[in-house]
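Journal club side-thread
Mid-discussion, someone asked how the predicted structure for our own chain would compare to the paper's figures. Pasting it here so we can look after the session.
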Amino acid sequence: MKIEQKLAQAIQNGISVLYRWQPATEQVQLSKTRREFEGHLTLNVFPFLKPTGVRNPQELATALGNYLVDNEPAVEKYNVIKGFLNLTVASDAWLGLLNSVHTDPSYGTKSPDENSPLVMIEYSSPNTNKPLHLGHIRNNLLGYALAEIMTANGNRVVKTNIVNDRGIHICKSMLAWQKWGNGETPQSSGKKGDHLVGDYYVAFDKHYKAEIKALMEGGLTQEEAEASSELMKEARAMLRQWEAGDAEIRALWSMMNAWVYEGFDETYRKMGVGFDKIYYESETYIEGKAKVEEGLAKGICYQKEDGSVWADLTAEGLDHKLLLRSDGTSVYMTQDIGTAKLRYDDFPINHMIYVVGNEQNYHFQVLSILLDKLGFAWGKDLVHFSYGMVELPEGKMKSREGTVVDADDLMDAMIETARETSQELGKSDDSEETAEIARIVGLGALKYFILKVDPRKNMTFNPKESIDFNGNTGPFIQYTYARIRSVLRKADEAGLSAAILPKDVPLNEKEISLIQSLASYDVIVRQAADDYSPAIIANYIYELVKEYNQFYHDFSILREENKAVQSFRLVLSANVAKVIRSGMGLLGIEVPERM
């Protein structure tokens, strides 16, 4: 039992004995005592004044403190500051708490079983007209971390991806390749397939802009020029041919998408993320169109004179939403309806979470309403995990203009920066181990920098700041973990054990504070799931590491002469390392044994 739970029960009993009234469990709120006061846990007694009939808060706090010292062995002493009762917990209680952490190899997490809720989490959602970029990195890292956190809270999790493999965007790349590709392939060019296809998407945009400029110089307005663009007309015609099943267009589409998928898979592997099931919009849009047509027949949707199909959501405080264009082609909303149907056909989902940027807030508000209107009982319960955009110090990225930060290039650059930083610190050579450490540290820096930020906020990614070995960074945490592992290896070589926790060891305040921090890990893991926020775990781990480094600086471990104290500090260090590894693992971040 947690010390807080034990003391809360004792406080309930004490107030009942002293005042013949017992507060509810949720009314007993213990918090960590502020650093400027003596004690470990603090109770605010003001909520108990009226029910007990006591007017003076200091009187109530003193009476309760005396009761606890006399009746609860975990309480060593107390002091009262106005209406706040500060409790000092006995050393043996802290040792008992550390032992409960020490003897649980999966401390802080719980494993799902066959009866656990099934949570599906959608993330990544790339387009096949371009490679993954920095924005996708934040999406993938958030989605993967959320999946790990939900699993650690005892849920069965299905990690899923929906690939946007059809539509005008891929037709633009296909048309550009037809016109200007000269048969170029990933093999002939030496480029990753997703990069090659992305280059043609950028090429289309450049030619399109040049065409618009020429038309406007010929006297047309921008709107007239865009409507007259032959290039765009060809792309739209290609989309219609694709939907009609044209063999030649389908063959070109399959070839170029295959190039992209091979490139995506390589990027995902490097990033350390994966999926249990991948859906493709080329398959789901047909299901979506069928559901929309069904909605049209039932009067849920309506058709305009041009043949387009819409949903009237004015009764829900929204507007009219397009579901099928006049030429019969579908839109993203139609595809998402179809994808949702297929997913619930495939899995008995209890909880559906979409990891998608906050620019799509309206889209998912509409999707939830439409699914509910179309008869899907789970429509109202879907969760849009809405996260903020990621930018660079120089501003936003633009795919069409080729100004995005490529995911592969960024990961390679982070690994190279980690290698260079190690060289500057005199810790690098050309060995395979050094290269592996550079990979772990570089990717760890990238992942941690992104995940430590509240996901709901926009953020600026600064590569130089992320790789720093000091401050709230991945390398700082990884270095501390490696330091602890080094201490434990040296202890093992010297025949010292970190396996058994000794009894009756005097503890200093830094040691107690570390145990207190360790003991809150399970609460942190639960809170991260409840709030859909990996940042809660990231910042908890940073605070734990910071506290451990202060302890390590102030107190000896291997040179400690008192063998019981030495053994205790080894056990304490081993459990700090265990929680660091567990917490970073939930974020998808590796920790090296050596640095």
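Post-session note: The longest helix spans residues 193-217.
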